[in-house]
Amino acid sequence: MELMEGLLTRRSVRKYQNKPISKEVLAQIIKAGQYAPSAHNTQPWEFLVIEDKEALKHFRVMQRSALFAENAAAVILVCGREDISFSRPKEGWSYIDIDCSAATENILLAAHALGLGACWCGASPMTGPIAAIKEYFKLPENVKPFSIVVLGYPEEMPKQPERDNPERIHWGKW
Ligand SMILES: Cc1cc2nc3c(=O)[nH]c(=O)nc-3n(C[C@H](O)[C@H](O)[C@H](O)COP(=O)(O)O)c2cc1C
């Protein structure tokens, strides 16, 4: 799929066929995540692949809006590394979530390019889901769950709504 076509046709897909995703395909998708830009090129991400049915079901408890993960083939949990992200704790800022956003979007686009359906479900910055996911998957102290990317072969492809919004584009002056 051509890049621009992929960008313009991606949608969040929440209904999946009962069909597994091969390890090769999952690895390709994660590779796309690893090629995302990051502040100071710190690449402060790690990826947990979840295919276990019980764990997929448990997302409804950890992040209610991700409950459809129970019918998915896999979840890629995009996690941020707090110890290596470009940050200034004394000044109260970190690029960790921004970098993980870039990785998450690359993953969504790669999934779409490979014929999968995917939906980004939020974890960070919601304190409840972060704590629940961290505990359930026994993540190390320095690792923060950022996004829950739910994946499967699509049962349906939602139609693209109108996106063009010329009044939100400011050419040269506001
Ligand atoms: C930060 C973020 C968090 C999201 N969390 C959820 C979620 O918890 N559950 C869900 O079903 N969709 C979630 N979404 C998907 C959005 O609802 C979706 O991207 C939006 O409605 C636009 O639709 P599209 O992705 O098809 O363009 C999230 C998207 C983003 C970017």
List the helices and strands and how they pair.
Blueprint: H1 3-9, H2 23-34, E1 45-50, H3 53-62, E2 74-81, E3 87-88, E4 93-94, H4 96-113, E5 117-122, H5 127-136, E6 143-152
Antiparallel strand pairs: 1-2, 2-6, 3-4, 5-6
The protein binds flavin mononucleotide.
How does this structure look, described?
By secondary structure, this protein is of the alpha+beta class. Helices cover about 35% and strands about 20% of the residues. It has five helices and six strands. The protein has helices at about 5-10, 25-35, 55-60, 95-115, 125-135; strands spanning about 45-50, 75-80, 85-90, 95, 115-120, 145-150. The strands form two sheets. Strands 1-2-6-5 form a four-stranded antiparallel beta sheet, sandwiched between helices. A two-stranded antiparallel ribbon has the order 3-4. Helix 2 (about 25-35) crosses helix 4. The chain is globular and about 45 Å long. The mean pLDDT is about 95. The structure holds flavin mononucleotide (FMN). Flavin mononucleotide binds near residues 12, 14, 120 and 122. Flavin mononucleotide binds next to strand 5.
